[in-house]
Amino acid sequence: MTFWRTETMRERIPAEQLIAPYREEHVTRSAYELCQGSEAFITSTENKVKIELAAGKSLVIPPGQFALLLTEERINVPMNAIAFISMRFGVKRRGLINVSGFHVDPGFEGRLKFSVYNAGSSDITITQGDRVFLIWYANLDDNTTDGYPSAGPDQDKISSDDQNVMHGEIASPAELRSQIEVLRREVDSKTENLKHLGMNIKLVLTVFLSLVVAILLRLFFMSYFAAPSSSDIEQLRIDVIKEMRKELLELEENSRATSESQTEEQDNVLDRRPDQPNNEGDAVDNVDVAPNRQNSVNSSSTTD
């Protein structure tokens, strides 16, 4: 298998009408640069219909979405050759990936449909006429009879079957992350609300139980302890007053007795002053005088 060089492509493509419309300036580095055509389909399209691209009109492929892109040029692959296809690096580095295949069978005729996926994190914009795709030709060792079956009219456009296969919005990793973040915030908000609700329920239950206990205690005391009548209260007041009066009288008598006792003791102290000898002193003097008299009598007897 030999790949065609630039000179071979510039010679054979226009001579054999392998690419139409052909532009010689699109042949570069042994490849031909194909352009975005007039039709496209994106899985995130609101009405789920293909996009018609007029000259200079653009399409936007959101992150995580598939698209079906139709080339502007019609391709013809000889029966003694095979073609390989890809996308230009300037588009691929933004995250656009070709997922439709990488070769074109011998005998194929028609426009190419590229199925692509935006694996990047931002929108990718493509304008009608942009050089987006690449094609290389390579020789087979001989002509083959096992070529691509005859293509129908749907090969030059994006058909309804093509759209049905790609129907539905595809959730990209970025979109899934965004949805997860939204769900996380909702869960956090609901969890916080449940916490507040739980605190309110506890408060209500506490108040309710307190009221129930108070009512039960009131009923208990009302059942077992009858309230005193006004006459009982008055009699109790009279008894208390009597007891208080009695205590006051006893206190007054004790105070009077104590005062009299103190007065009597003071009088006794005054009676015992030194200038008025007491009876005990007189008795002592009498005792002392008697022995003296006896001694005098004895002395007189001896003298006689």
What does this structure look like?
Its EC number is 3.5.4.13. It comes from Stratiformator vulcanicus. Residues 292-304 have a biased composition (Polar residues). This is Deoxycytidine triphosphate deaminase. InterPro entries: dCTP_deaminase, dUTPase-like_sf, dUTPase_trimeric. The protein has 304 residues and is of the alpha+beta class. Among the domains are: 2-143 and 156-168, Distorted Sandwich (Deoxyuridine 5'-Triphosphate Nucleotidohydrolase, Chain A); 171-227. The chain is 46% helix and 23% strand. It has helices spanning 6-16, 89-92, 160-165, 173-224, 230-271, 279-303; strands spanning 2-3, 19-20, 27-28, 31-42, 51-52, 58-61, 66-76, 81-87, 96-98, 103-104, 109-118, 124-127, 131-139. Strands 1, 2, 3, 4, 5, 7, 8, 9, 10, 11 and 13 form an eleven-stranded antiparallel β-sheet that branches. Strands 6-12 form a two-stranded antiparallel sheet. A hairpin with an 8-residue loop joins strand 4 and strand 5 (51-52). The longest helix is centred in the middle third of the chain and has 52 residues, at 173-224. The N and C termini lie far apart (198 Å). The relative contact order is 0.10.
Present the secondary structure layout:
Blueprint: E1 2-3, H1 6-16, E2 19-20, E3 27-28, E4 31-42, E5 51-52, E6 58-61, E7 66-76, E8 81-87, H2 89-92, E9 96-98, E10 103-104, E11 109-118, E12 124-127, E13 131-139, H3 160-165, H4 173-224, H5 230-271, H6 279-303
Antiparallel strand pairs: 1-13, 2-7, 3-4, 4-5, 4-7, 4-13, 6-12, 7-11, 8-10, 8-13, 9-11
